[in-house]
Amino acid sequence: MKTEDVIKHFGKKSNVARALKIARSSVSGWGELVPERRAARIEKITGGALKYDSSLYESKANSKDQKDFD
User: Fold this and answer.
1) Average pLDDT for residues 12-33, to the nearest whole number?
2) Which end of the chain is more exposed for a tag (fewer CB within 10 A), N or C?
3) Which residues pair with 33 in a beta bridge?
């Protein structure tokens, strides 16, 4: 799940943070992809409007860019 798609869906980073009950700075720390654990949660809270795609994460599994900020 791409971070830009999530922000576009929610309107702004603070709305994403509020929906996930996390700090806005956590959202700001995401790279190109939403952390995998968060992506699964976003799919659930958006009723499937945003889809978690595990294949996006397979190539990034060992990447330093994949950090899950809380």
Assistant:
1) 96
2) C
3) 2
Q: What is the mean pLDDT of residues 21-49?
A: 96
Question: Rounded CA gap, 52 and 2, in Å?
Answer: 9
Task: Give the burial class of 14: count Cβ atoms within 10 A of its Cβ; 0-12 exposed, 13-18 middle, 19 or more buried.
Answer: middle
Structure tokens at 21: 């009950």
- The mean per-residue pLDDT over the stretch 24-52 comes to 96
Q: How far is CA 1 from the centre of its chain?
A: 6
Q: Between 28 and 67, name the one with better pLDDT.
A: 28
Closest CA to 50 of 4, 15, 6: 6
